[in-house]
Amino acid sequence: MKLVTALIRPDKADQIRSALEAYGVPGLTISPASGYGRQRGHTQTYRGASHTVDLLPKVRLEVLVDDLYCQDILDVLVSTANTGSAGDGKIWVTKVDEVIRVRTGERGMAAV
């Protein structure tokens, strides 16, 4: 089992969620996040005064998937999140040893 974590643009969250649901992903977690990468924020002008926005708004998306479907999920995420501009986000995959559904005690993929 794998945990796929993606940090993406907030305006892409609904589109990515729809694409993952269309693929058949049974569940996911979406949380607000903020941070920066190579982009290092940007400068904005508000009422004539410039200020730097260091932490950019992002969305953290997490999906537990079977090893067999991990590459397909990554392809869906990359193709949907890509705008071709800096700040599109990052995706990483983590090996998951165990998942337990608290209510029933089910383990492994049955708990997902």
Automatic annotation (TrEMBL):
Q: Which GO terms describe its molecular function?
A: ATP binding; enzyme regulator activity
Among SMART domains, the record links this protein to:
P-II
Gene3D superfamilies with a match to the protein in the record: 3.30.70.120
- Choose one Gene Ontology CC annotation of this protein and give it: cytosol
Q: Coiled-coil regions in this chain?
A: none
User: A GO term (biological process) for this protein?
Assistant: regulation of nitrogen utilization
The family line of this record is:
Belongs to the P(II) protein family.
Q: What is the protein name given in its UniProt record?
A: Nitrogen regulatory protein P-II 1
Organism, by scientific name, is Paeniglutamicibacter cryotolerans
- What does UniProt list as this organism's lineage? Bacteria, Bacillati, Actinomycetota, Actinomycetes, Micrococcales
